[in-house]
Amino acid sequence: MAIEIKVPVLPESVADATIATWHVKAGDSVKRDQNLVDIETDKVVLEVVAPADGVIGEIMNEEGATVLGEQVIASLEEGGAAAAPASDDKQEASDDAPAASGKEVEIRVPVLPESVADATIATWHVQAGESVSRDQNLVDVETDKVVLEVVSPGDGVLAEILAEEGATVTAEEVIGKFVEGASGAAKADSAPAAESDDSDADVLSPSVRRLLAEKGIDPSNIKGSGKGGRITKEDVEKHLKAAPASSAPAAAAPEVAVAAGERSQKRVPMTRLRKTIANRLLEAKNSTAMLTTFNEVNMKPIMDLRKQYQESFEKRHGIRLGFMSFYVKAVTEALKRFPEVNASIDGDDIVYHNYFDISIAVSTPRGLVTPVLKDTDALGMAGVEKGIKELALKGRDGKLSMAELQGGNFTITNGGVFGSLMSTPIINPPQSAILGMHKIQDRPMAVNGKVEILPMMYLALSYDHRIIDGKESVGFLVTVKEMLEDPTRLLLDV
């Protein structure tokens, strides 16, 4: 049966999106919950996963195509998975004995950035004794702001884990041992009847693996209902619901056990990134005289301009024209006119910067990061869009370097993509100001004595009153408003 693969429902203030990366091709066999394609909006990247096991039929929109919410972009033929993996498993099982004696290789922490003393073992994606393939991610090692992936040096088995999750490690420390060419002991030792269960465990989807790890469940205790007995998310959820009932007869006090299950809690240590975010936000609140001023902007001129030139812009530059490039260019022009906003305090000195590096707040699965788009005054609209896209993708994948996260004279944060109507953003030290963009919402406005419905957006500028006075803050915000309401100003420099 053919299943339609659709673009997810987009945030309210986002008109369209772009196909960023297809991870599969037409004719590829895929598993349930496998990531098929990344779809990029102005600020967030959405993953579209396979709704079932099957084969990708037709891909209707290639990478770079502009798409709308719930648009059909591909088809999936359910249940058409290739039979090759089964034969591979049999071959692998028969080869276990001769391959078991391979060369042992040490798994080490990567070289850390110069300013980073140590790191934390965030997540082991494999267990000791598990078979792995070359370049498979074994473990995530987290520093204060970046996450480093340590991959398998070849095909074989992760023989031993020397540093568990949560452990603090240093650069090039040995954290595990890997045996080349070996196979998992579970397959060699298991009976033929159980062999298929082990092979199924090897192809658990990432979301199922994550759920099993979070709940501390052994996959061997769950009977899979997927193709070939594979475990699905529904199987795990069904197991969790049935767990209290099944354990009740053995429990000393059944009533207490049920109550505890209904009112459970989970204690998880803060990640290093979350600790860093918490400390910096607290530092900003405690060490600056922070104040926020507001204004609103009519987004119709920009929306009309995008509609008129979107197609030709994309053909010429190979990237979609979004709102963020307008925000960045308007802010850059305002920073030129109000140098205090582009300055910072260092002790008893004010440091004025004669360059324009703007931090772009990016929400990632691990927390908020603010990579820096450098020399925005020298970038055109296409250059800004490409720079933001690159930083957003790196942020999502945890690939941002320390150099890309350091510096920045001013920050732009866009909570509008998540539906925020108004907020008071917190300054990103040692910067002196941050601009919050919000949801674009149709509102009745008085225009030349008549009421018109216009797409309006609130702007919020939080600033350090020690260095920026009300005159400069309001003037800065009005400049941004004027630039956005009449984007021709950005071209004519008026």
From TrEMBL:
Key word Nucleus present in the record? no
Q: Which residues form the Lipoyl-binding domain?
A: 2-77, 104-179
Tell me which family the UniProt entry assigns to this protein.
Belongs to the 2-oxoacid dehydrogenase family.
Q: Does the keyword Ubl conjugation apply?
A: no
Supply the EC number(s).
2.3.1.61
Q: Which organism is it from?
A: Alteromonas sediminis
What this protein is reported to do is described as:
E2 component of the 2-oxoglutarate dehydrogenase (OGDH) complex which catalyzes the second step in the conversion of 2-oxoglutarate to succinyl-CoA and CO(2).
* Reactions that this protein is recorded to catalyse: N(6)-[(R)-dihydrolipoyl]-L-lysyl-[protein] + succinyl-CoA = N(6)-[(R)-S(8)-succinyldihydrolipoyl]-L-lysyl-[protein] + CoA
Q: Which GO terms describe its biological process?
A: L-lysine catabolic process to acetyl-CoA via saccharopine; tricarboxylic acid cycle
**Pathway in which the depicted protein is active:** Amino-acid degradation; L-lysine degradation via saccharopine pathway; glutaryl-CoA from L-lysine: step 6/6
Into which EC class is this enzyme placed? transferase
Name of the protein: Dihydrolipoyllysine-residue succinyltransferase component of 2-oxoglutarate dehydrogenase complex
Q: Which PANTHER family does UniProt cross-reference here?
A: DIHYDROLIPOYLLYSINE-RESIDUE SUCCINYLTRANSFERASE COMPONENT OF 2-OXOGLUTARATE DEHYDROGENASE COMPLEX, MITOCHONDRIAL, DIHYDROLIPOYLLYSINE-RESIDUE SUCCINYLTRANSFERASE COMPONENT OF 2-OXOGLUTARATE DEHYDROGENASE COMPLEX, MITOCHONDRIAL-RELATED
Q: What CDD domains does the annotation carry?
A: lipoyl_domain
Cofactor or coenzyme needed? (R)-lipoate
Judging by the UniProt lineage, the source's domain of life is Bacteria
Q: Where is this region: Disordered?
A: 80-104
This entry's Gene Ontology molecular function terms read: dihydrolipoyllysine-residue succinyltransferase activity
Instruction: List residues of the Peripheral subunit-binding (PSBD) domain.
Output: 203-240
Which keywords fit this entry according to its UniProt record?
A: Acyltransferase, Lipoyl, Transferase, Tricarboxylic acid cycle
One GO cellular-component annotation of the UniProt record comes to: oxoglutarate dehydrogenase complex
